[in-house]
């Protein structure tokens, strides 16, 4: 069985849109795309009067080298969100197919499925927020086409062991595509926590990566899907023709340059050190019930009164994420690791609030 047999047959059979940029390359005078012949004010040589390449070669090469995959195994687009949406639309028939998720987890998996009118099967994480592989496999029905796992998990921070990913990939072969979201994997203490190296072994494995977190490019919206080349080719058929704005591609290439990578590694090291510092200090504060172990750039923290803590921080100009709506996190806030000075400010506000209580 080919992994594409899991995809919607009408997507496999459709005639994709062919953009002007895809149909012709080279040349010196471009009169095929109804673009303006003049660059806009403040263009600075980017050429924003022209449509960008659908998958810019320089960016694809840089990302493939970064993630250790072949260029035909990589699709880049507007953050991980676009890849999630494309996967759901390509593999799930409206009103018939489903995805499987493990709450509490990233909310866009379910949002994209519901927009597509696909079912959402939930298998809760264990009490300690680790993955229950046996329960996941027991819940997979013939309708399930995509199984999403997030590692490190958002919003709890735990890393899924590689052995668990392999067990799922093996058991789901010819049944479902396993999608591993590694948005925060650069922050893990392990030197190489990514499972991208398993793609050649399992054609039903896909990996989501992003430049939004460790690479400090959230505003550029550059995400990648790493997968079997046939899956990548399928998604290109339904992707909008010009997904990546030229200024965003330019920012990504600067971020992935030699000095850009050195800068990112320096900041990731600071985040790891500050994660330990902030977590240890929070555990000693009155009113803190628990700081969940995290391998991401945030901490999920349980409080005796999360509502009061949220308001105290907000009054001090500090915005954290209220995650109390998530299952089993009714007393928790998610705090992103900031600069050392920002983390010190968080601790000072919480200490002051505890003293006045």
TrEMBL record:
PROSITE patterns: AA_TRANSFER_CLASS_2. Homodimer. This is Histidinol-phosphate aminotransferase. Pathway: Amino-acid biosynthesis; L-histidine biosynthesis; L-histidine from 5-phospho-alpha-D-ribose 1-diphosphate: step 7/9. Its EC number is 2.6.1.9. It catalyses: L-histidinol phosphate + 2-oxoglutarate = 3-(imidazol-4-yl)-2-oxopropyl phosphate + L-glutamate. The modification N6-(pyridoxal phosphate)lysine is found at residue 213. Its cofactor is pyridoxal 5'-phosphate. It is an enzyme of class 2 (transferase). Pfam families: Aminotran_1_2. Residues 47-349 form the Aminotransferase class I/classII large domain. GO terms for molecular function: histidinol-phosphate transaminase activity. It comes from Rhodanobacter terrae.
